[in-house]
Amino acid sequence: MNILFAILAGISWAVLGVTLLISSPLLIIIFCNVLCLKYLRNKPTSKEQFKSYCWTLYVVNCTERSDEGEGLITFSEYMEKNKEFLKEKYERALRNEF
Predict the structure, then answer these.
(1) Angle, CA of 89, 91 and 96, to the nearest 5°
(2) Residue 54: pLDDT over 90
(3) What local confidence, expressed as pLDDT, does residue 97 receive?
(4) Is residue 58 classed exposed, middle or buried when 0-12, 13-18 and 19+ CB atoms within 10 A define those classes?
(5) pLDDT of residue 12
(6) In which domain, by residue range, is 34 found?
(7) Is the dihedral of CA 73, 74, 76, 82 positive or negative?
(8) Which pLDDT value is given to residue 78?
């Protein structure tokens, strides 16, 4: 009986060892994928970066308008009126041509 128990225990440990050898690389791959997906999800897209750049210029514009006593406009109005200017300025900023 003790011999049978020892054989079964040895076989179960061997199966567990093989299972760990097979699953360990898979767990590492899954872990890396989760980290990569989390990074990519939080990384801003170029469209979001452009919008953030436009928002910064909008705030500066609002400050200038307020100082001059002019009426303020909405962000969407600012984007519509200055679309080409903003694109050109953003492209120059990306090339470090301030």
Answers:
(1) 90
(2) yes
(3) 77
(4) buried
(5) 76
(6) 1-43
(7) positive
(8) 94
